[in-house]
């Protein structure tokens, strides 16, 4: 096989690639074909496919320098809350400040900082609250680290990028839309009750989805979580669970605010969600074909928040709150940040209101996105969960 094509039938409506993008995709495809060739039995489990297509150095979606974040007019693929408006970071600051005071620390550790948008709004907001933070970033993408550096340098703040997880961190951890970007396993319950794992093979010079019996670790994890619905296909994020388990070792005192789209387990593995939650994004086209445009499109899965909370408890951490993004932001005083006074012009007000509508609306980010707080050694009830805490639903 020389230059494998991606899936032969692309999802309808996907824009065609320009010559430069086609060239990049061909390089990614050759790299992926080699990974498949080296995999036992020529079968690359889906989590490894997702890992390589997103993070292969200089090739993967998050590693290769495409625009990614921002509105369609800016050439992005998707928009996150901090990209949408600085009001998100300014509002989050109230919760971060409370955690810092409760843990007697001024350290913030942000995972997966994207373009640096959240840090760019959070640091000035913390300064306004009298905190000069030590801001640390864990970022897997070398390209994004550079972008974050350029974006944050003008703040002249104490910002550093960590190469390894801290040994005994005290302070506030933040991860916005990071767990959804961690590689997931794809599985399918067969008609005879057996569990199969999905993966990618090369077939007739093209990538194709295939399946085989799931390894025992995967089967054990799923048997405990859901019935074997025949034909049911979904995902499980063992990497995010391992990440939270690790936090149990290194979070000495403080809280982690994990913000992402997802549900409690009974909704995640609902019988009617029989095709799972995997989503791909390319220039604001959302579809569900993870073989299309490898290296050029984002691949994500929703988060099973019950799994994350259970893992935190097993790791000796406390689960301090779980609620919708809308409720969390309102509890943290979002409305007080709206530029409604005379200083703001009409256009600024209209844009801020449109962004807030998107953050809060049930039909947009307000209900689908959740906030989970896990902690150690923090006693006080957290501001963001004062009303509408839904831990009982996990
Ligand atoms: C969907 S983007 C979100 C970016 C940003 N937090 C935002 O809200 O705009 C996912 C980010 O997580 C990073 N990432 C993924 N897995 C990670 C991990 N295990 N540790 C640190 N960063 C990670 C990606 O490189 C990227 O920066």
Helix-strand blueprint:
Layout (H helix, E strand, L loop, with lengths): L18 H20 L5 E2 H10 L25 H4 L1 H18 L3 E5 L5 H12 L5 E5 L3 H11 L5 E4 L7 E8 L8 E5 L5 E9 L2 E8 L2 H8 L9 E4 L1 H13 E13 L1 H4 L10 E4 L2 E3 L10 E3 L2 E2 H10 L3 E7 H7 L14 H15 L8 E8 L18
Parallel strand pairs: 2-3, 2-5, 3-4, 5-10, 10-14
Antiparallel strand pairs: 1-7, 6-7, 6-9, 7-8, 10-16, 11-12, 11-13, 15-16
Bound molecules: S-adenosylmethionine.
GO molecular function: protein-arginine omega-N symmetric methyltransferase activity
Protein name: SAM-dependent MidA family methyltransferase
Pfam families: Methyltransf_28 (PF02636)
Descriptive overview:
Keywords: Methyltransferase, Transferase. Pfam families: Methyltransf_28. One of its GO terms (molecular function) is protein-arginine omega-N symmetric methyltransferase activity. One of its GO terms (biological process) is methylation. It is a single chain. The protein is an alpha/beta fold and 394 residues long. It folds into two domains: 19-76 and 188-237, no CATH class; 81-181 and 239-269 and 301-388, Rossmann fold, CATH 3.40.50.12710. It has twelve helices and 16 strands. The strands form three sheets. Strands 2, 3, 4, 5, 10, 14, 15 and 16 form an eight-stranded mixed sheet that branches. Strands 1, 6, 7, 8 and 9 form a five-stranded antiparallel sheet that branches. Strand 7 and strand 8 (206-213) form a beta hairpin. Helix 4 (86-103) crosses helix 5 (117-128). The model has no long low-confidence stretch (mean pLDDT 93).
């Amino acid at each position: 096989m020389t230059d494998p094509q991606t899936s032969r039938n692309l999802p309808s409506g996907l824009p065609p690639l320009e010559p430069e993008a086609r060239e990049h995709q061909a390089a990614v495809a050759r790299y992926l074909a080699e990974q498949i060739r080296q995999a036992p039995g020529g079968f690359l489990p889906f989590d490894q496919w997702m890992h390589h297509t997103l993070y292969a150095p200089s090739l993967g979606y998050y590693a290769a320098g495409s625009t990614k974040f921002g509105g369609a007019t800016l050439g992005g693929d998707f928009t996150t809350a901090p990209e949408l408006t600085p009001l998100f970071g300014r509002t989050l600051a109230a919760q971060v400040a409370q955690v810092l005071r409760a843990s007697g620390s001024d350290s913030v550790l942000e995972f997966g900082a994207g373009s640096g948008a959240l840090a760019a709004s959070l640091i000035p907001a913390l300064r306004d609250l009298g905190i000069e933070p030590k801001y640390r970033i864990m970022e897997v993408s070398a390209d994004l680290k550079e972008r974050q550096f350029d974006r944050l340098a003008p703040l002249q703040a104490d910002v550093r990028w960590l190469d390894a997880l801290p040994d005994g961190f005290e302070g506030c951890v933040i991860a916005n839309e990071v767990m959804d970007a961690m590689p997931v396993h794809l599985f399918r319950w067969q008609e005879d009750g057996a569990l199969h794992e999905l993966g990618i093979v090369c077939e007739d010079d093209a990538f194709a989805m295939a399946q085989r019996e799931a390894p025992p670790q995967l089967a054990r994890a799923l048997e405990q979580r859901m019935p074997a619905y025949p034909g049911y296909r979904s995902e499980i994020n063992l990497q995010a669970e391992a990440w939270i388990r690790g936090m149990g070792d290194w979070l000495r005192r403080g809280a982690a605010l994990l913000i992402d789209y997802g549900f409690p387990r009974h909704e995640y593995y609902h019988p009617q969600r029989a095709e799972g939650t995997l989503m791909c994004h390319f220039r604001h086209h959302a579809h569900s074909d993870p073989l299309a445009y490898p290296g050029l499109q984002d691949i994500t899965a929703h988060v099973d928040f019950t799994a994350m909370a259970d893992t935190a408890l097993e790791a000796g951490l406390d689960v301090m709150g779980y609620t919708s993004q809308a409720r969390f932001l309102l509890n943290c005083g979002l409305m007080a940040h709206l530029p409604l006074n005379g200083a703001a012009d009409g256009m600024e007000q209209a844009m801020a209101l449109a962004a807030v509508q998107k953050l809060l609306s049930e039909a947009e980010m307000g209900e689908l996105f959740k906030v989970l707080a896990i902690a150690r050694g923090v006693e006080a009830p957290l501001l963001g969960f004062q009303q509408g805490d839904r831990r009982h639903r996990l």
